[in-house]
Amino acid sequence: MTTHSKPATDLEIAMQAELQPITQIAEKAGIPIDALEQYGKYKAKIDPNQITAVGEDAKVILVTAISPTPAGEGKSTVTVGLADALHKLNQNVMVALREPSLGPVMGIKGGAAGGGHAQVVPMEDINLHFTGDLHAISTANNALAAIIDNHIHQGNALNIDPRRIIWKRVMDLNDRALRNIVVGLGGPVQGMPREDGFDITVASEIMAVFCLATSIEDLQERLASIVIGYTYAREPIFVRDLQVEGALTLLLKEAFKPNLVQTLEGTPALIHGGPFANIAHGCNSIMATQTARKLADIVVTEAGFGSDLGAEKFMNIKARLAKFKPSATVIVATIRALKMHGGVAKDALAQENVSALQAGMANLAKHVDITRQFGVEPIIALNRFITDTTAELDAVVSWCKAEGIRVALTNVWEQGGEGGIALAKQVLEVLEQDNDFHVLYDVMASIEEKTRTIVQKVYGGADVQFTDSAKKQMAQIEKFGWDILPICMAKTQYSLSDQPKLLGRPEGFTITIRDIIPKLGAGFLVCLTGDILTMPGLPKQPAALNMGVTADGKAKGLF
């Protein structure tokens, strides 16, 4: 794959690339033509039922990161670059990623297709409507909301208490004005007035169900198990009580098939599902990961934010459910982000500051500790920026060597797969060794024990406490026998604690659980901490202000 001039932005690099027809990518990946459902020339859905496993299932490489900062880490970029580097080393590799949400794309974070010369393409399609999966999830979610309100309007045979409906509507945009609303105004023919609200689509339980289901039958059963609210007698109401799980599955059946695209260097890529990692489990779909494992020897995937969020949930929720183990873990770090964890302001990051860098490496050390607790040996991918100095790079490499931690300098943004060869070689060495992967808690333990394990072992905190509201919810969950599920912590991504401004490696803190929400379809309990919001807002200067279309119909302003 070649590029023409010297483009300056991610979008320009992506748009100047010469893509291979998706049929060629499918052939390269061993996907039979009967399994391919094309969406134009460069993207397709694949039917997992038409895929036959070749040999043993692939080894899984999980890419995670230190606690994210505004300085940026480049986790998706390194994930794609590593896959391309392994491809260059003649490995049979696929990359499996999450689908971007329009909320962050139009807001402040930007897209999720990698960057520079380590991208999945067509980048503009992937970051916008792609194959319509998120729209299908939004539609299924909102169809359920409409059916709930219609059931109440038509006589409420199930005795649903309108004050105790927990199912919200969703949209795939950031819109703080819709967090709390009132529906049903305008008189008797408009339905029953009640308080309601919107979440962002990627926070919907249907997104989590979509990503954790292992088959279309499992998808329907999980949808049926969703709790939408409670009766006047405070008994739970399930989707199966409304008898609409079949209709919801019908709305999702095409979206449930993984999406096939390619990297700039022609490595096959599956992009499917996209739950946030600070309010959900933050991993791409099990269907995509398991399909990739049937087709390749190595699958490179990622989990959202730092290892305290995405990786913890990848291990304790996704890998536990899908019954596979990660064979290696890559922790992405940058000099800039480490200096910020060491106390440097964002506008001073270009200046050399080895002492602040060394202070910030305490955060890196904790993320190494987190992955090792799961029995998986990490490799540090030190993602280079032009402002990094030799002294700063040497300080990190020397520290890693002194601590017995594998480290590799990466420059995949500028060089693509070639800039990830050193990392790929380190990964291949780790893949030759077996590991002692294990989850950190038994699901049969109490809710308090499971959350305390995460707080103490993963976050490095002292203890966990529950608000009076959370204690009442815990008692109700135990009454219904739902306490035997894994825990999905909803926590800020910026700190190991539940306080966003506590950077570095805070100690002695207590995590406060303010609410516990049962997600029986997804199969976990969401523990809300801090000020986590399920519907984000837009920043003062949203990325959308820079977006548009050229006279010849090309996208501009995406990143």
How would you describe what is shown here?
It is a single chain. This protein is α/β, with parallel strands linked by helices and 559 residues long. Strands 1, 2, 3, 4, 5, 6, 14, 15, 16, 17, 18 and 19 form a twelve-stranded mixed sheet that branches. It has a four-stranded mixed sheet with strand order 20-22-23-21. Helix 13 crosses helix 14. The longest helix is centred in the N-terminal third of the chain and has 21 residues, at 133-153. The protein starts with 9 loop residues before the first helix and ends with a strand. The model is unreliable at 1-6 (pLDDT under 50).
Provide a compact summary of the structure.
The chain has 559 residues and is an alpha/beta fold. Strands 1, 2, 3, 4, 5, 6, 14, 15, 16, 17, 18 and 19 form a twelve-stranded mixed beta sheet that branches. Strands 20-22-23-21 form a four-stranded mixed beta sheet.
Largest pleated sheet: 12 strands, mixed
Give the overall shape, derived from the CA principal axes: globular
Instruction: Tell me the β content.
Output: 15-25%
Measure the end-to-end span: 21 Å
The structural domain count equals: 3
From the alpha-carbon coordinates, what is the Rg to the nearest angstrom?
A: 23 Å
The total count of helices amounts to: 19
Here the CATH topology of the largest domain equals: Rossmann fold
Uncertain residue segments: 1-6
Instruction: Using the 3D structure, state the CATH architecture of the largest domain.
Output: 3-Layer(aba) Sandwich
Which structural class should the secondary elements be placed in?
A: alpha/beta
CATH class of the largest domain: Alpha Beta
| Mean pLDDT, all residues | 94
Would you report the number of β strands? 25
Helicity range of the residues? 25-40%
Q: Considering the protein shown, what is the CATH homologous superfamily of the largest domain?
A: P-loop containing nucleotide triphosphate hydrolases
